[in-house]
Amino acid sequence: MREPSKAKQTLVNELESLKQRIQELEHAESDRKRAEEALKASEERFRTLSDKTPLGMCLIDSDGRYEYVNPAFVKIFGYDLSDIPTGKEWFRTAYPDPEYRREVMADWKEDLSSYPNLEIKPRIYEVRCKGGDFRTIIFRPVTLPSEKQLIIYEDITDRKRAEEVMQEEKTLSESIINSLPGIFYLFDAQGKFLRWNRNFEIVSGYSHKEMLERHPSDFFAGKEKELVQERIRDTFVNGEANVEARFISRNGAGAPYFLTGARIEINGQPHVMGLGVDISDRKRAEQEIAILVEIRWLISSTLDIEEVYERFAVEVRKLIPFDRITINLNNHDQNTITVAYASGSNVPGRRLGDSFPLQGSINEALARTKTGMLLHPTSADELTGLYPHLVSTFQKGISSFMSVPLIYRDELIGVLHFRAKKPNAYTEQDLQLAERIGGQIAGAIANAQLYTGLKKTEMSLRESEGRFRALVEQAAVGVAEIVMETGQFITVNRRLCEMVGRSEGEMLATTFHAITHPEDLHLHEEKTVLLLAGKIGHYNLEKRYLRKDGEIVWVNIEVSPLWKPGEKPGRNMIVVEDITERKRMEAEMREMSLRDLLTDLYNRRGFITLAEQQLKAANRAQRPLQLTFIDCDGLKGINDTFGHEEGDRALIDTANVLRQTFRESDIIARLGGDEFAVLSIDAADMNPEDFSKRLQENIDVGNAKGTRPYTLAMSWGTAVYDPGSPLSLDELMFSADKRMYAQKIGKSNRRN
Asked: 86-111: buried (b, 16+ CB within 10 Å) or exposed (e) per residue?
């Protein structure tokens, strides 16, 4: 009985164990189902997230096979799983350059080897997409516990391009600022400098760090500092202001500047931006012109030449420094020189009233050349062989010699001498200025007794002085950016638009060629070639712009490239300064030195200067010119018989006949003595016989009036300038002169 019971119990136990095992299996199956459901839910959440995220994602198994790519991945790269089934295909397709591919694969292997000890850092690569374009991507790999890799891709192409554009704009801004003439500045309402150009540091002498500690008014002193502070306040209140003040650098040196200011808003806060331009040259030019006008005025204000000398020396010293100044006049009948005026260091034998031989002197040398002379000897021996009479002056401590001829009616009447103890004290620029001064004093010396002539000169001088005092204020510069290849304006500032009388829209729709005077278009050619070849970094030139209303504006432009050597030429920055007023004043000063005082025709210098210009213009335009040489016959006899006053009248009448005969556009000049010349600008329609007939008729009309005790007569000869067979001006003048003398001899033979 026990055995069956025991067996029964064993069976019961086994059944219980089986039941328990079944229950455990049921629980395990339930857990497995719950885990599968959780995994499925997790996968669904991952796919939902990856499908909606703008970031690209892919899942790579441990064998390097791509199991999954999300829609953003396909959108970014264009590839799907069929294009890149494995990592090998990805590397070959995404990185076509073998060398770059090796770099990327090396980074990849390095990242894999560092896991799990180190966190894998993001990498940035350039990836070729399916369409062939390249995009900049940030790679963020994550190694999963299953040893699979989840890669997240962020496309930063647009952001990188935006950063590059911002950097280019910053570089362009710096280039523009640093290409501006003078100093550029930007500061806030507290006077803290925020930006400035390199030239500001160069001019001021302060470093970048030191500039941060400066206030705008620190560069000025005294009353001008208060004036600058007032103008800064005006700018913040009224929007703009400008001022002229002396800019003082760190070493104490100063220079006059024209400073502009304009209020701008940055982040809602007011700031001042402006330019400062060194106007030292303008101030010197203004001073020079003012003193020259003053000299002209004092010469015309009195008939007392001694008074003129004293006041003349005072004014000249303001322009040209000297330790001794003398005026030595030629005595042609005695072949000597007399010291008419002397001031400064004493030199034996060269005091006021002293006379000495003309032979071997500087006066004699300048009578031949009729141009100024500079001497900077270093020893007395240098002078011994040239001008022995200067040795005593040199031994008195004079080291620099400058002499200019005093010419009246094409004849040297004396020499103006400047002497200085300082070695190399005078320059070619000083010499040119001294020649202009000499041209003024020569007329006063020769015509001190000609009251009528002086009154006329006085009136002319006063009118010129009035024009000078009416000079407009110097304006700020114009700035523009142009395409070098086409000349198209890309940007223009307000001042440039004002200069050329056009709106900003009109300027942006045109080119610099269109507003440049046709005769000046060639001025850029040579310098542009040098700029393209990298032989120069920038260039300056003076030319003419045409305003919208047709008026001409003279400008000085500085052209700076906004591209580097070796790059394709792109844009140029031009800075434009209006120099119209300066050109006008220069023309007036030139005109004063080119006129014959008796006839008011051009003198020899004026004729040669203008004739040379017309020869060049004739060659360019391929048009003929006609040069006529005229001689007032019998002038010596008129002077000897009726006096020099009547001789002067004969010369004036000759000039008037020539004005009646020739056109206003022709260049009429008295070359000296009884010689006249006329250059007819366009001789294509001129008939020599008609011209000769018209000239003789005008002479006869004057003689028929019977107002002279003599008969006015002239001889003339003409020569035609043919651009196809060009001649020099000297050759053309010689040809006309030869024909004139042939006519004169012919008339003499007929009378005999």
From this structure: ebebbbebbbeeeeeeeebeeebeeb
Per the DSSP assignment, residues forming a β-bridge with 151 are: 58, 141
Per-residue pLDDT tens over the stretch 693-743:
989 999 999 899 888 899 999 999 999 998 888 889 999 999 999 999 988
**Domain end position, chosen among 423, 451, 469:** 469
Both 33 and 102 in one domain: the answer is no
Instruction: Report the alpha-carbon distance of residue 660 to residue 671 in Å, rounded.
Output: 19
Exposure class string for 287-318: b at 16+ Cβ within 10 A, else e: ebbbbbbbbbbbbbeeeebeebbebbbebbee
3-state SS, one letter per residue, for 246-269: EEECCCCCEEEEEEEEEEEEECCE
Question: Does residue 221 lie in a domain region?
Answer: yes
Last residue of a domain, one of 106, 139, 155: 155
* CA-CA-CA-CA dihedral for 341, 343, 348, 353, to nearest 10: 20
Which tens digits make up the pLDDT trace of 254-309?
899 999 999 999 999 999 999 998 888 887 777 777 777 777 776 666 656 777 77
Domain of residue 662, CATH code: 3.30.70.270
| DSSP for residue 488 | B
Whether residues 336 and 393 share a domain: the answer is yes
User: DSSP labels for 431-490?
Assistant: HHHHHHHHHHHHHHHHTTT-HHHHHHHHHHHHHHHHHHHTPPPPPPPEEEEEETTT-BEE
For residue 325, give the amino acid letter. I
Neighbours of 65 (CB within 10 A): 16
pTM above 0.85, yes or no: no
User: Given 3-state DSSP classes, what are the helix, strand and coil percentages for the chain, each rounded to the nearest 5?
Assistant: 50, 25, 25
In this structure, the answer to whether residues 78 and 124 fall within a common structural domain is yes
CA distance 418 to 435: 11
336 and 250 within one domain: no
* DSSP bridge pairs for 128: 134
Q: Among residues 121, 123, 118, which one has the least CA distance to residue 105?
A: 123
Range of the domain at 392: 283-469
DSSP 694: H
DSSP annotation of 389: G
Q: How many CB atoms lie within 10 A of CB 752?
A: 5
| Residue whose pair of structure tokens reads 């003193």 in the numeric block | 291
Q: Looking at the structure, tell me whether residues 85 and 44 fall in a common domain.
A: no
Residues 96, 128: contact at Cβ < 8 Å?
Answer: yes
